Amino acid sequence: MASTIREFRHDTAAQTAVALAASVAARLQQAITARDTALLAVSGGRSPAAVFDALRGHAIEWDKLVVAQVDERWVSPDHADSNSRLIREHLLTGPAAAARFVPMKNEAPDAYAGQAECEAALAALPRPFDVILLGMGEDGHTASLFPGASELSVGLSSEDLCLAVTPPAAPHQRMSLTLNGLLDSRLLVLQIGGAAKEAVYRSALAPGPIEDMPIRAVLRQNKVPLDVWLS
């Protein structure tokens, strides 16, 4: 088990989004007060969009915040499937637009060709991350560490911060933080919405191969505290 797993539960996803955003905002501002900067890494998808909408309304010293990505599809920044588009539209608006955004996607023709540049950009950040906001798929993947992906074993063992991934089923090449990159953090936050995903989460807590459910690598590590937010 992780050194610390704390679970927080709310009746609705909307309640979770508001409470989670307040928790993250407080932690980021504490980091800024202590170190004059804070570093947040975020995932894409519908669930974090509601958190972003709530988070951007908090009185953070946004110009001292750096926002990075947990993973990204190798598509143009204006593509409907782009995580960076979601982050720009839901988080980096209003006062929050003063934050510095460091996207994973670069000008390389594919994710594999862009990996070295992405690694250098991540290595230059003021790590460790203060908060990494994670999601989980119903197949037990987190970030873009997918069961069945040919890159999974490297993603779980590499000392690099990121790697290029081709998902076995989902569209688009991805860039993802490795497990090493995920664990370079002061706090991991896992957002779980709905009964189906909670069942996957409970299954992942049970014994079984990490390769079958890569989220287990996050649940079983003993390096970084993990907060799990359920609705």
Overall number of domains: 1
Estimated helix fraction: 25-40%
Strands ordered across the widest β-sheet = 1-10-9-6-2-3-5
CATH fold description: Rossmann fold
- How far apart the termini lie comes to 22 Å
Which blocks of ≥5 consecutive residues have pLDDT under 50?
none
The oligomeric status of these chains comes to single chain
Determine the structural class based on helices, strands and strand pairing: alpha/beta
For the record, the CATH architecture stands as 3-Layer(aba) Sandwich
**SSE order, as H and E?**
EHEHEEHEHEHEEHEHHE
Number of helices, counting only DSSP H or I runs of 4 residues or more: 8
Sheet having the most strands: 7 strands, parallel
Q: Let me know the number of strands.
A: 10
What is the name of the CATH class? Answer: Alpha Beta
Look at the structure and give the mean pLDDT.
96
Shape: globular
- Give the DSSP E fraction (strand runs of 2 or more residues): 15-25%
Radius of gyration over C-alpha positions, nearest whole angstrom: 16 Å
Can you offer a commentary on this structure?
Pathway: Carbohydrate degradation; pentose phosphate pathway; D-ribulose 5-phosphate from D-glucose 6-phosphate (oxidative stage): step 2/3. GO terms for molecular function: 6-phosphogluconolactonase activity. Pfam families: Glucosamine_iso. With 231 residues, the chain is an alpha/beta fold. It has one domain (9-208): 3-Layer(aba) Sandwich (Rossmann fold), CATH 3.40.50.1360. The protein is 35% helix and 19% strand. It is built from eight helices and ten strands. The protein has helices at residues 13-35, 46-55, 83-90, 111-123, 152-157, 179-182, 195-205, 215-220; strands at residues 5-9, 38-42, 65-69, 71-73, 100-102, 131-134, 162-165, 174-177, 188-192, 226-230. The strands form two sheets. A seven-stranded parallel β-sheet has the order 1-10-9-6-2-3-5, with helices on both faces. Strands 4-8-7 form a three-stranded antiparallel β-sheet. Helix 2 links the parallel strand 2 and strand 3. The longest helix has 23 residues, at 13-35. The chain is globular. It starts with a strand and ends with a strand.
